[in-house]
From TrEMBL, chains A, B, C, D:
Binds 1 NAD(+) per subunit. Residues 215-376 form the S-adenosyl-L-homocysteine hydrolase NAD binding domain. PROSITE patterns: ADOHCYASE_1, ADOHCYASE_2. Residues 1-28 are annotated as: Disordered. The keyword Plastid does not apply. This is Adenosylhomocysteinase like 2b. Signal peptide: none annotated. The keyword Transmembrane does not apply. It comes from Amphiprion percula. One of its GO terms (biological process) is one-carbon metabolic process.
């Protein structure tokens, strides 16, 4: 699998960054990274990413005069990549001060961190942190004299958690949290339910635009990419079962069908099941097809969907992988038994061999395939980053009282704005409503274009069904 | 265009049914229809429809013991077709008494009405009613000694309106209204807003299952069917512009792309626009492509989308039609000018001819193409009818207080139930959650499967965007 | 099904055209048609067809000066429709004299025949000829004093057969035969094998362009159209088996898959079978799926593909139809047994009912579905007519000795020319080779573009396989 | 790009294999490879390949008794990979003796060569041969005392060329040549034209099955794979121009359209152009779209299709690659000018930068993308290898006189046999003709199923078009 951080100089010495003297060319040392000398190389990576993130660049331009984040002190904890760097430099251009740590101990691109540090950002992150390093870096972001954050940008909730645990008083000055991950959002809703959420939080994970791109569109491409890079399998004529027909499953099914695979679907929800039927897929139970399929893909968010019993019955050479959020969709643990032999044949590819010689091909040990074995296009990351920036602007500028101590979705109009900023990439031309039409439809010419009542009346009065 | 009522004996005498003596073979005369002698033919039509409405037949079977509508007195006003007859006889099998009128003066299948009357139903409807007949029939349904409705099933709101106007006291005994049409639902929401809705109402138009079938899946097929039956056009290689990329537009685009057309899309909403891009359609403004396209299709719900200026610039032979709900999407009125010649070349097909000889091909005079020029598959009607039946059961059996004087959507679980009743048609096998999985997901094994909070948190806290 | 001749005035008197006085407005009476008064209406039909046959119109323009058919005396026997009229008037514009009869006793559009007669053509044809009329008309075309044909344009071989039988000496002056139908071509090859073909013949049925349009592209659309017009079936989720994966089968499969059907394929040829697999279809034997499918479509050219045994095992409501050339693909005769009841439910639609109540839906009594139940787009007919015109020009102008007494295919370059004349319809822009590129590829800049050796070396040296 | 030989131990010493002592565990030393110790690892690779080459394994089984290659002495020159090893061991199982060299100095999998040598095959090949090594290895295969080949299996024609040049007398005993590559086949036809081909040769490159897989099906997948691995580009919404609509172009277009790209096509041949139109692609000249497209793909076989003028006008970030056979489709040489900067950003990916900062992304320096940047599925190689084996059997066993000194295509029946051997992979079930059907169609029940005359009459009598 291609490694986004593969350009990192692997001959770096082994000294921990925490033990090194850190100083950039201007004498600033308020950061902790692997190697400041990689800054030039990192800068080039950032410049390339800028070309594919036109929405953030447009935000920079439009905000040149007004600086909507003037006074904002943003503490962030995300993957530190070229795309994040474009986001951080955009926030800075909009007026914010930023301090940043990594949300994952492996995902930092060292040369990008170097470029950021050289550019004056207080970055605390390197590829291959220890658990201890991880929390140390986060702490260095928030625990600093004479500077206190008033905005949080989090990915996974660890930063938020740390502040809750160590510096709860800090929340007095914090205007809001922007959280991007499923896990982090889940934590926030739990805090909210428990009455412990003490600032407004924006759930950007569930914005329509992001969801569509992260799930349907991205998976449509990455299922093919992930399978090819790991197994070189030919799709034409292959029999595939896709477990789950949500957005991820829909994307996988559409792509494989288009490549000439014969696709079966399993579902628990009759509405999604009926969609699968109408879209041309045989709806089956897993045990009906498990002996005959060449590829098994889970996209359920559920656990133990592919259990040992099914693994035992798969045919020789069957490929098994997971595209869902949960790492427990395939019961990989059940394969760790003495009678089965594991052979690592490539990075992220294991052959699990039965006593009779049958082997199944397990990808990424059942973890999310498209994170492990394919890359996420910059365009998708651009949508996420733009959404994050707009959410920060919204929370930071919201009039007193607009947002309570609760979890909010991005206002539909801003969701639409993120979409509109990405249309020029496709040379796409939006039609504008005439005054007469806007009046007829009862819409503002600038949106939001889907009446708010549309969806929420769709469900808010729903009651439980009769017993 | 195929006429749903084509089997009607056209040699019927011209006497108005209101002036005829009405009596079925058992001596019952509480109905008013065209010709009771057509009952046998109508019965056969109903039997054929039963074969394609397995969900209602299943409801009949399951309810054999319990009679969930025992005591229900349903007054209905819908299209009177073989499919409606299957619904009425199902309601009857579930314990209800029914009286019925037509919601449209042209749509009654006389032989089906005859079969219903012969079977003991009080039906008041015939093909070709006058305006006066229309209201007379509705009145005969409700204004009857010794019988008062306690449930309303309406399509368009005329029946509801009539009771509001003439017999407001009747609402005291009415447990609820089930309304299927966009127009009728709109009227109900207006009543609700005005505080005048005095019983609970169920909006079955917006149930997920119905929406998907009425829009995406049905339009995917009917756009091809409607165009072929009227124009015999070859789709391959044709340039088409589809205005609007909602569910209807998505269905049209997918079908035409699959048949080898080159499809352009116009949109006002940037989120739908981005979807169009990702789905492989060039997003344009209408004026960019109007000179070059062979077919123009409107699916916007908006008015004056195709105005005279665009019609003037279309090329010779361009086909223009409307798939949207609104009949004003194409500004047909603007074509009624002296310099243009209209030629009716087939049923539902007009050539409008410019002074220079250019002709455009206008279908159904800009009215909804798939209602005018193709047929609606029984399967789609089955979903609607099943939803109506379940909504009646729900409202009739709901414990005191569950429903207020408001408009409700079908509970998600019942929406799922409608879907599940239609899966056997596709020999589709649903997977059941294990106890462990249900617990992990926090779901009841029998649904609803999409957590209620999912969608409504998606928008209910949305506020307006910053200025 | 739409009837191409539906505009014909059905109130015509019943006198046989042979007994009427025939005279057009200029006093000419050398024709025999139904009713000269319909000429104006027929002229409008021809004008509409002209708009969709741009290639013939282009030929007229290009040939204005040269008249490549000057001196040609063409006797023709084809369907007499608006499209044929455009062809005949094109031949006339190119310098030819024409006399014409119908190749089918039902297919003549009387009003078009009238317009042609009014325009001075010697046409002998009407809708509803008797067998005797049929041959009488053909004879009137050729057996005329002072005029002898030197070119034959035939569709089915009846005209050619008549001349062979009655006027063999006529072949001395005939420069060639152009034949369009499979049957007619087959007859010519038989004559050739028997050494009895006494003039060159051009097989236009097998030109690449015509084949692709008649089969793949036309069937892709007409399978959907034919099924919808007869049964209103919803395609989404339906299980369909397509017997045969040649060009016709490929078109049917692609269309149904695109509409959301689940398609199975049967094949006898392993190469086509492998293509079906790679294109994403399960390759099965008919008996494996016959109990579960909703629709059965034959496209084999073979006989007895769907035999009584399979019909017995189909499920209730199964639709059965034939898209192949042979009318014996479905063994319809086997259904004419006393225990089965036939019910004609619509034009071209029979329900065949088993003693247990099971009914199958048989379309067009097993005859070719797309001829019986859908229309052929003018664009497809345009390709055929253009090919015929070019073949006539080629044979008429060929230098002595280029063509022997044999059956020829249209030269590839002319096949390409037909294609190129139809590109403007799609606003398609062909790239031209540079001199350097043409030299590199060893091609003439004007084509033919596929080296002749390419295909014929592909098979001509093939020998039989080892035992 | 994934390197098929990546498992090779890179720490091997630098001694040339020619200078090493070569001896396997049985004391045999008639081979020359990199390192015999890698044999075990190579054996495992071969075993994995065997699982995906069921057709060859089936051949081994069926031939167990008869040994159709008993007495055959095959000298081969192909890529030496696990798949080739399966072929060689199959030939051996069928009775042949084999000596083998590599047809490419880089493509040898050293560990596979080791396994073959250990297994007793006389293999002369290693990864990274010099030009001199290359010919030395070939010579060692043929120039051996007491053994003279009677069959040649070649890929590229170098082996054949060497024997022609050095050992022409050897052809006296040679029964035939089997050649797989375009280049090698071209050379053979030239020899044949020049009257210098002194034995029969079988062109397996142009067998129907191989062509379909190498071109349409393989390219459909590899265009996506090649682009993703090199650029991580998102396909959805991208504008792409594909130059050439032959089999390769058709595969590329279908795949990209399915992934949501907007695809334009250029063509020189009007028939292919019309196909592109009917398949739903805008047919343009390159200059019409060159400014707007995101990706340019050449599939023409022509030269200088994308010239400097077009490269100059592409937009920033445009990706340019070649899927055609010719390496000169993109005029890469024209980019080697001083004002342009080249940056190698990844393996096989160059940024070419204009003075104004515009950069285009050139893949594989314009060489064939799918060979350089994606892998060929074993299934495709299986078809090739099976075809080669059958061709050897055919030529070796052909009765005297069946084949002259000419180039032949694989008999259609054997082509069908190759296809049939691969059907079990898809669990595909072929239908068998009944005696009655076979008679009706005039076919042998065992094939060939497409009558021989079908294609060759299609073109063999074609003459040139009139001037």
């Amino acid at each position: 699998c291609t490694d986004a951080a593969s350009y990192t100089d692997s001959s770096d010495d082994e000294t921990s960054p925490r033990d090194k003297q850190q100083k950039n060319s201007k004498g600033n040392g308020d950061f902790c990274i692997k190697n400041i000398k990689q800054a030039d190389f990192g800068r080039r990576e950032i410049e390339i990413a800028e070309q594919e993130m036109p929405a953030l660049m447009a935000l920079r331009k439009r905000a040149q005069g007004e600086k909507p984040l003037a006074g904002a002190k943003v503490v962030g904890c995300t993957h530190i990549t070229a795309q994040t760097a474009v986001l951080m430099e955009t926030l800075s251009a909009l007026g914010a001060q930023c301090r940043w740590a990594a949300c994952n101990i492996y995902s930092t691109q060292n040369e990008v961190a170097a470029a950021l540090a050289e550019g004056g950002f207080s970055v605390f992150a390197w590829k291959g942190e220890s658990e201890d390093d991880f929390w140390w870096c986060i702490d260095r972001c928030v625990n600093v004299e004479g500077w206190q954050p008033n905005m949080i940008l989090d990915d996974g909730g660890d930063l938020t958690h740390w502040i809750y645990k160590k510096y709860p008083n800090m929340f007095k000055k914090i205007k809001g949290i922007v959280e991007e991950s499923v896990t982090g959002v889940h934590r926030l809703y739990q805090l909210s339910k428990a009455g412990k959420l003490c600032v407004p939080a924006m759930n950007v994970n569930d914005s329509v635009t992001k969801q569509k791109f992260d799930n349907l569109y991205c998976c449509r491409e990455s299922i093919l990419d992930g399978l090819k890079r790991t197994t070189d399998v030919m799709f034409g004529g292959k029999q595939v079962v896709v477990c789950g027909y949500g957005e991820v499953g829909k994307g996988c099914c559409a792509a494989l069908k288009a490549m000439g695979s014969i696709v079966y679907v399993t579902e628990i929800d009759p509405i999604c099941a009926l969609q699968a039927c109408m879209d041309g897929f045989r709806l089956v139970k897993l045990n009906e097809v498990i002996r005959q399929v060449d590829i098994v893909i889970t996209c359920t968010g559920n656990k133990n969907v592919v259990v040992r019993e099914y693994l035992d019955r798969m045919k020789n050479g069957c490929i098994v992988c997971n595209m869902g959020h949960s790492n427990t969709e395939i019961d990989v643990a059940s394969l760790r038994t003495p009678e089965l032999t594991w052979e690592r044949v490539r990075s992220q590819v294991d052959h699990v061999i039965w006593p009779d010689g049958k082997r199944i091909v397990l990808l990424a040990e059942g973890r999310l395939l498209n994170l492990s074995c394919s890359t996420v296009p910059t365009f998708v990351l651009s949508i996420t980053a733009t959404t994050q920036a707009l959410a920060l602007i919204e929370l930071y500028n919201a009039p007193e009282g607009r947002y309570k101590q609760d979890v909010y979705l991005l206002p539909k109009k801003m969701d639409e704005y993120v979409a509109s900023l990405h249309l020029p990439t496709f040379d796409a031309h939006l039609t504008e409503l005439s005054d007469e039409q806007a009046k007829y439809l009862g819409l503002n010419k600038n949106g939001p274009f889907k009446p708010n009542y549309y969806r929420y009346e769709n469900t808010s009065k729903t009651t439980s069904a009769p017993a």
